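Mods, move this if it's the wrong board.
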Amino acid sequence: MMKNIALGEQLTFIITQRGVNEAAILAQAVSKGIDLLYLQAMTEAYLLGTISREQALKTLGTDTLEEIEYQRDALKRDVEWGLSND
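Not the wrong board. Structure tokens:
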């Protein structure tokens, strides 16, 4: 996990390192952020049953969807195990 570094300091480093202007970096950051939020929303929608597996598969891809399903199923097993061992 990244240490708590001020946003301005991070931005200055990226601008210096890449040699591009601030607007280009901010545009890229917004784009990447939207992509990440979209994937998170798709995952949430799939887990809540508001979109089909096929819809999730188109966006998330096979590997990611299988990992999500594995984690969901493992959590269910853990909860069932915990409830059965009162």
